[in-house]
């Protein structure tokens, strides 16, 4: 059976129009100054070339900053570049609304969920048929994709430096032959500095994670060096609305509730990567952190994502702690919604629980829901997102088997991991030592009004 639900996708670009509707005329080519061949001849855009590093070091004295670059300008520069360009686009009127005017508050309670009233995010959108039972779907160039974004919405190109040091070129040519990665604004922002990271945009990759694309996202988090800057990913079936590979990112100057949630450690591999499970949080998920190199972390998490994709399991990813900590969250809300298993009370909120909501930043579209926001209501919504305990254990087994047999885990590690997982899934929670994992326990509490 093919499951479908009527979806109203978020508009992320000013060129996301109904089929056949013309965009603004802005120059040569097709007149839209887009990222397709018709408009890319002689195109020039800023380029931030990041320094490739092997690892990042988390801690209170320079958390998340590459060890050999602590306090150096290149890390801080990406922050200032992104925010400066983002504010420039805001002054030019490219956003659909002023997100800085949205009311935001921390919900009282143990978890300090964050509620935002964002009534502009669901206005003037086009209805579409969205298939929720296929995590992997082929790219369709006839539908909106990021090659149709206007060049004025692009902040800069993002790629590896050829010189071994971070570099910035304010007016670099766009090379279609080497499909550049772009950082563009989300014209329907959730928070300050909300951007899209679009790997190899001209290759027209569908929404599916691999090791290379995840590495780009981790590098961006590491280069920013700011614990308030997180990247998120939604798979198809987990409220991605555009089937063109992209990550989202924005700044929020308080901890996400999921970052403060208790975890229980499952295992630490010889590569240094630690794998834990969330405990006492409404959505079940795995937490990956550390690793001797960034590649270790990226390979471990991407192997898990590929496993979920190939087994048609929708999921969300949160990249936190400057790229040092990654949350992997399989979910089933859209499937329940399509099967009529979600209450009308929750459906009426029009909240689609994607990575940000699951992480504890509740983007609410009705004033009533914002005024009545409570920890109980947030928990009730997110509990519908989570896999059952039995199903989560089945999915976890698939993930650990995939990591073991990906070719990157040696025999000792593989045997240890499978043994640890077997113990984990047969040991009562109360018999496991639960620890709180957070590199940033006090991120400017109370900054939101």
Automatic annotation (TrEMBL):
A biological process from GO: glucose metabolic process
Domain GDPGP1-like N-terminal: 78-250
Name of the protein described by the UniProt record: GDP-L-galactose phosphorylase 1
Single GO MF descriptor: nucleotide binding
Keywords: Cytoplasm, Guanine-nucleotide releasing factor, Hydrolase, Nucleotide-binding, Nucleotidyltransferase, Transferase
GO CC, any one term: cytoplasm
Major location category of this protein: cytoplasm
Family recorded in the similarity comment: Belongs to the GDPGP1 family.
Domain GDPGP1-like C-terminal: 257-404
Subcellular location: Cytoplasm
Lineage: Eukaryota, Viridiplantae, Streptophyta, Embryophyta, Tracheophyta
Species name: Salix dunnii
